[in-house]
Every structure is written in C-alpha cells, then in structure tokens.
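User: Here's a structure from my thesis project, written as structure tokens. My advisor, Dr. K., wants to see whether a designed sequence matches the one we expressed. Can you design one independently, without my sequence as a hint?
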C-alpha cells in the first residue's frame, strides 16, 4: 500500500525489480519534470499555461528511481467547483500502462483530501475519448468507480482511423459527390501558416452565430493557443479564390492523435460542403505525419444535446464511434 505524500513506498515491478514512488503536488504543472508516458497536450505545462494557471493545482506519482512522473492529475477551480480541466476538452488521470489501480486510487484520494480541505463542493473530471487508449479507459473507469465518482455526462465521440487507404475510398457516396463538386469548382485547401488569430476568430464566431451556436472559446483563449503553441495548434482552410470558405483549428494531442477541434463553414457555400474537402486534406496531412487517429469530437447542439445530423455527417466521412465520459464527485 502507498503511504502519504513524501513517504516513499516500494512497489514490485512485474520483473521483480523494486521501484520507489512518492506523490508530488505542484502549482506550475510540473514544469521541467519528465513523464514516463507520452502526455496529451492538454496535460502538459505548455497548454496548462494557456488556461487558468493562477488556479492550477497538479498531483503526480513520481518514480524516484527513474526520476519521472508515472501518473498525473491536474485541476483548476473557481472556489466551489474544481475541474479537470475547465477550459480543455479533457483532463483527469493519465498514467503509464503498467500502474496498478490501487496506486491511482491513492493519487485520486490525495486530490479529494485537498478539495475537502479547501471547501470545494464538486470535482468534475473530463476523460479522454475511449478511442485514445482503450485499455487505460477501462482502468480509469475502475479507479473513478472505486473513488465513488458518478457519471455526469456520457456522449458519443467520433474519430477517423488513418490508414494507407485513400480518404475518398472510406466515405459515403454522397460525400464523394460533394468532394468532387468542390474540386470541380476550383476550391483550394491548405495549411494556414502564421494565422492571424483575430481573423480566425472572426470567421469562427460569424459561422457559429449564423447557426445560433455559441463559440466554446473567446478571442483571448484562441490568441494564446495560436501564438503560444504554433507547432501544436494548426489552422487549415478551404478557399474560393482568396476567400476563406471553410476553416478548422486542429490540435496535435500527441504524436499519434490529431484533434479536429473547431471546424466552421461559410454557410453560403453549404451546397458544396467544403468541410468534406477540408477533412480530406486533414486525412492526407495525417497520413504524411504519422498520425493514426483524427478525433472529430462530440456532436452537440447549442443546448448540449447530441445532434443526429452532425453525427451522421461524421459517419459519412468514415468516422467510428467511441465513448467520452465526464465524471463528478460531490463533497458534502
């Protein structure tokens, strides 16, 4: 069993070699410390710094032999509710594949003790889509259940597996027709290097307003994302001549996952469906970059309900379903 923070505990590895762990707590996202796993961008200090760093608290399981973190949990809070993470699509635990559930339960209990001591009433945890790492999703579900978390939300998440097969071969015939229509119209598609955050935001917000949907981030958040993370936050556009008619902000989550984070169209071009052309380009980009999975996210309307037409569109693009769960725990 693991003891309290700063009290190392010996835990046998499968090979029988002893290994020492201790729990660390930090308010700077563990800047300068290495993880023993490939952390998702949203779990790394460079992205955490674009969120609400003044309210950030992090816990990690530290291997004192290898001097690397083998598990992390980050949260921010507003005084009554703690989120992991509030302004990111995912948070919660991330860990090496060989850690036992008992060790992760102990880490979560430390987070809970802090929440109770600071009069936090509610802890909300956004988990990664199951497709990111199915084995870890199963383990973390067990950990949250053992810690008496309940399911706050459960949504369908869509993703496209990237293979050597051409994009056009995996999409519905109706989307093939739209793709060819875009090409016949002479539309071009490209990565927008050094994008202007204000211009990107204007396009996104105008598209959302015309659909009656709010935009999930403000101009300051988008500016921080594009300026501070230029190699991870990429903008791709479809153009009719020099006019942008479709755009998306995509995020390198890690070396094998690209998140199609914030897509938008000029609704005047809806009969062409330039988003199909944009996704075709993303797929080719993923093929050339060694990406294995393109995350298309959840499909929700402005009320937070699942939108059947958007789900059907993603499936017409060859997307598969997985689950994305948000957990919560109420402290009384």
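Assistant: Designed independently from the structure alone:
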């Amino acid at each position: 069993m693991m003891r309290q923070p700063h009290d190392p505990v010996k835990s046998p590895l499968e090979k029988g070699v002893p290994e020492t762990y201790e729990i660390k707590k930090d308010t700077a996202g563990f800047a300068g410390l290495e993880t023993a796993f490939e952390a998702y961008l949203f779990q790394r200090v460079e992205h955490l710094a674009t969120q609400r760093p003044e309210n950030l608290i992090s816990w990690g399981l530290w291997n004192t032999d290898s001097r690397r973190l083998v598990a992390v949990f980050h949260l921010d809070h507003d005084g009554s509710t703690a989120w992991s993470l509030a302004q990111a699509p995912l948070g919660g635990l991330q860990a090496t594949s060989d850690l036992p559930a008992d060790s992760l339960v102990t880490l979560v209990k430390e987070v809970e003790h802090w929440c109770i001591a600071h009069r936090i009433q509610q802890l909300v945890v956004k988990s990664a889509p199951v497709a990111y790492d199915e084995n870890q999703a199963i383990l973390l579900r067990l950990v949250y259940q053992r810690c008496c978390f309940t399911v706050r939300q459960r949504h369908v998440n869509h993703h496209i597996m990237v293979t050597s097969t051409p994009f056009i071969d995996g999409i519905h015939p109706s989307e093939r027709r739209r793709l060819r229509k875009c090409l016949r119209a002479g539309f071009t598609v490209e990565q927008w290097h050094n994008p202007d955050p204000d211009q990107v935001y204007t396009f996104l917000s105008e598209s959302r307003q015309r659909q009656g949907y709010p935009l999930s981030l403000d101009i300051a958040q988008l500016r921080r994302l594009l300026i501070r993370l230029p190699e991870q936050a990429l903008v791709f556009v479809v153009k009719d001549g020099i006019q942008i008619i479709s755009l998306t902000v995509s995020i390198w989550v890690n070396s094998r996952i690209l998140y199609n984070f914030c897509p938008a169209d000029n609704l005047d071009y809806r009969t062409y469906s330039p988003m199909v052309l944009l996704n075709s380009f993303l797929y080719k980009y993923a093929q050339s970059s060694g990406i294995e999975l393109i995350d298309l996210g959840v499909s929700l309307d402005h009320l937070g309900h699942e939108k059947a037409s958007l789900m059907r569109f993603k499936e017409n693009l060859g997307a598969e379903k997985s689950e994305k769960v948000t957990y919560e725990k109420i402290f009384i």
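When you compare it with your expressed construct, this may help: The first strand starts at residue 9 and ends at 12.
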